[in-house]
Amino acid sequence: MESDRRQAGQKDRKGAANIAKEGLYSIGKANKICNVSPRTLRYYEEVGLLNPDRIDERSGYRYYSAESMYQVQVIRYLSDESFSLEEIGQILHEEDLVRLREIFSEKIASTRRTIDYYHRREESLKAWYEFFVEGEWILRHGGLSPAARYIPRERYRCYRCRYDSTEKSTAYIEAN
Predict the structure, then answer these.
(1) How far is Cα 151 from Cα 31, in angstroms, rounded to an integer?
(2) What is the rounded CA–CA span in Å between residue 126 and residue 118?
(3) Cβ(54)–Cβ(24) under 8 Å?
(4) Alpha carbon 74 to chain centroid distance?
(5) Which pLDDT does position 133 carry in this prediction?
(6) Which positions ≥6 away from 45 have C-beta within 8 Å?
(7) Residue 39's pLDDT is what?
(8) From the first residue on, what is the mean pLDDT of each consecutive set of 10 residues in the chain (176 residues)?
(9) Cα–chain-centroid distance for residue 109?
(10) Cα separation of 101 and 107, whole Å?
(11) What's the CA dihedral at 4, 7, 11, 17 to 10 degrees?
(12) Cα(87)–Cα(107) distance, integer angstroms
């Protein structure tokens, strides 16, 4: 029994030495180098983004090369740039530079739309903020109140003033 354990230990050390010679890193070392959890590395394998360079048949341990760990960094970068895992897989497996350019061009356009959306949202929030500031001013000054309502810029076409002799001047906005 003791000799069986000794032989198994020697085989493990030889296996580890061979893996080190091959330039492979265990999943534990790879996760520390890449700053991702072993669970994330297994998930990347599950969804087809990254395969271990070697899986030990006996122990099931996964081993990764320096090139694979570089690929993990690419996956993380693309993820940080809001690419979906499906898009990342497409990018990693795409060899046509024209198609890669199209994918990035689409992401740029999508990002611009998102930025525009948040700019409009910011403008709307600022307008409401100003509305409340104006409301505080009105309350402090005895209730003198102009009639005002915020309308987002993209919803109106022009601003006109109309004057007639029967009523006070009126400003109005024509809707698109």
Answers:
(1) 52
(2) 12
(3) yes
(4) 13
(5) 83
(6) 51, 52, 62
(7) 93
(8) 49 53 84 91 93 90 92 95 94 94 96 95 90 80 60 57 52 48
(9) 15
(10) 10
(11) 140
(12) 10
Q: How far apart are the two ends of the chain, measured CA to CA in Å?
A: 88
pLDDT value, residue 158: 54
* Model pTM score: 0.62
The CA distance from 15 to 20, in Å, is 9
**pLDDT value at residue 176:** 46
Give the pair of three-digit tokens for residue 137: 């001013």
Question: What pLDDT does residue 9 have?
Answer: 46
3-state SS, the chain, equals CHHHHHHHHHHHHHHHHHHHHCCEEEHHHHHHHHCCCHHHHHHHHHCCCCCCCEECCCCCCEEEEHHHHHHHHHHHHHHHCCCCHHHHHHHHHCCCHHHHHHHHHHHHHHHHHHHHHHHHHHHHHHHHHHHHHHHHHHHHCCCCCCCCCCCCHHHEEEEEEECCCCCCCEEEEEEC
CA contacts within 13 A on the Cβ side of 51: 6
